[in-house]
Amino acid sequence: MSGARAWARDLVGAIALAEGAIAQRVLVALEGVDVADTNAFGERVAVERGDDVAALARRCAEAAAAGERVALLARAADLATARHELARIAARGLGVVVHAVTEPAGPDTPASEGGIGPALSLGDLPWGMLLATGVADALDLALIARRAAEDSGCPFFVVHERSHAHHVEPLAPPSRELCQAFLGGGRPPADGASRPALPERSFADRVPFALGSAMRELESLTGRRHDVIERVPGADVSMALVGVGALGESLLADVDRLRASGHDVGAVRVVAWRPFPGPRLAKALCRALAITVVEGVEQPLASSGPLARQLKASFADALTWAPDYPGIGRIPRIVAGVVAGRREIDSVDIDAMVHNMLADERGKRRFVLGGDEAAALLAPAVTRATAHGFAMRAIVSRRETAIAAADLCTAVIASALGARTRVAVRTLAAEEGGGFAFDLTAGRDRPRGSHAPHAMRVIAIEDAGALARGNPLARLATGGLLAVPTGQLSADALWAEVPPWAKAVVFDRGARVVGWSAPAPQESPWAAAAAFAGIALAAAAADRALAGSRALDATAVAREVSDALRTAGQDAMAERGAQLAREAFEAHIEVPRATIEREDDGVRLGRRDARVTA
Predict the structure, then answer these.
(1) CATH number of the domain bearing residue 243
(2) Residue 312, Cα to own-chain centre: how many angstroms?
């Protein structure tokens, strides 16, 4: 993608963007990695591809010893075949960065081979390890790992979790000025190419200082704060949720909603797996009465999962007044939970974890989400509540349409409103109407969480048949907006097309209903994407907390969508897309609230439907 506009990128695209800006040699064992020809310093980037990860690791060592800035991209499960070479890299003190990409567990994948488990199994190597949470985090941690590796002489893993959902965020390449100020130039430090052999403990002592320095330096240059642990809120709490990676990010995202419901709960995400921040973690959690540790690694024959074991060891050191640890007089009650690899965590699961802690000793000390019913948690009644920021779900019948709409919507909202955005494309369950959805979240701050938002302010449907297949309105927020496709020209005719059960949901939640003209199914996916961009901009511009003082009109919407389509290489669709976005932005029909409230008989009939009572 060319041009100054920040375009939506996925996880692998973010890694390629970072290493294409700072590395001199990139070795790739993944599909779909497109690295720039030259880095931010004007040097040519050499790219080597192969399937033999051990051979690529050996080439990494040779290039790093020759004074080059080197990166390796590979699947976390494949890195196990290169353990010998990776250990030799650490023994030589080479500042290599390896990006370990995890894959979600499939139907026939053993639990030990899917998810983050294969990456954490590399934790016994004398390497640093950072756990990223998403697209933007992947870019920042790539820079931090590079700086820490070159300063300390300890190589670093950066672990990236792929999920069943497809995540994108708008990103721009790191500028030359940033790379120059942060890394000091196109070549690593002269003493960082190959250090004399030292005891591994000597290297380990340097790493926490180098890592902390890199995080503080990046914050001073970009304003984006990073630390070895993330904690929300900063004050002490009586209940805490702890996780790593994408699970930890989801816990942090729901803390404000949980606290608004009256629960004294906080969340901690561990960013640095090696060196493990035991003293910091014990200090942050020592005043809690109950802690729930959630992880995606299932080890049924172990006492608990890797994170729970590390946390318990940290509290044991604190209880025995080990050096650097805070002195404590008791250990909180620790609940160990696992999310099965084939299951995506939901806000309802997080509610269930809080209720389990509130049950004191009557609650479960171990649980598995997505496993046997006997090990599951009892889910409380769901009351959908919107978090801070803007959340929209669009439901389509084709995955390629959802991906195109996700890329386009996140880019135009970021550009037109100056908002931070992220999108996840996921397959909907049959009870939610089936098909594919893209969930867009936006705010003045970077949106958190990789799971589906608890409630959506906007739900837009491409195919009205989804209302007959399930309940796609389950996550519609109170006072939200429902956009349905229609060929009608009047509000009364549009309202007559809405099924009775959907009328009951709209009535009970005080929602608005608008009708819009969806493009024909045979048109390009980018045509539907442009129309959804118009709907998204209309809804986001009406959110004063998001739009601020920025005003959008139909002309600006058409221009933004046209520019974004050209940035995406869709020049042929630019004019048609601008027209569709403009029509969706301004030419929709809204059902008056008075018409909705007159529908007494239809609402009473609709409330009998199982989709409403569920």
Answers:
(1) 3.40.50.920
(2) 27
Tell me which residue has tokens 């002592």.
Answer: 205
Boundaries of domain holding 437:
390-613
333-380 pLDDT tens trace: 999 999 987 888 999 999 999 999 999 989 999 999 988 888 899 888
What DSSP character marks residue 44?
B
Q: What DSSP element (H or E) covers 72?
A: strand 70-75
Does one domain contain both 395 and 459?
A: yes
Round to whole Å and give the CA distance between 611 and 614: 5
User: What CATH number is attached to the domain comprising 533?
Assistant: 3.40.920.10
Q: Which residues pair with 28 in a beta bridge?
A: 49, 73
pTM for this predicted structure: 0.94
Residue 383 lies in a domain: no
User: How do residues 231-284 score in pLDDT, each as one tens digit?
Assistant: 999 899 999 999 999 999 999 999 999 999 999 999 999 999 999 999 999 999
C-beta separation of 268 from 242 below 8 A: yes
Please answer whether residues 226 and 140 qualify as being in contact, where contact means their C-beta atoms are separated by less than 8 angstroms: yes
Of the residues 205, 222, 239, the one at which a domain ends: 222
Same domain for 491 and 546: yes
H or E segment at 353?
Answer: helix 347-358
Among residues 145, 143, 175, 160, the alpha carbon closest in space to that of 6 is found at 175
Cis peptide before 233 (omega within 30 of 0): yes
Tokens of 555: 């002309």
Residue 265 counted as domain residue: yes
The per-residue pLDDT for range 511-535, each reduced to its tens digit, is 999 998 888 878 899 999 999 999 9
Regarding whether 99 and 155 lie in a shared domain, the answer is: yes
For residue 369, what are the contacts with CB-CB under 8 A and spacing of at least 6? Answer: 337, 338, 339, 340, 343, 345, 349, 376, 377
What does the alpha-carbon distance between residue 497 and residue 474 come to, in Å, rounded to a whole number?
19
